[in-house]
Amino acid sequence: xxxxKSAAKRLRQAENRRKRNKTWVKQxxxxxxxxxxxxxxxxxxxxxxxxxxxxxxxxxxxAKGVIHKNKAARMxxxxxxxxxxxxxxx
Length: 90
Fold this sequence. Notes:
The chain has about 90 residues and is mainly α.
């Protein structure tokens, strides 16, 4: 329990940020799962659209400060690498 008004306000702000960040993290995870499912399917067009959508979500999350920009870049790189490997294979 906070002792001061400012501590109480910081607690409220932190809770609001946590909720907001949680929604973005869920969206990113959902989109990366969609990419994984598309990779299992093997359709090149679907894979390309899902990877593009995932990259957009990751960039938005990084811009909002939900995840670090280097983490977003790393995740995008890994998704693209898997997509390219699947495209080359099939």
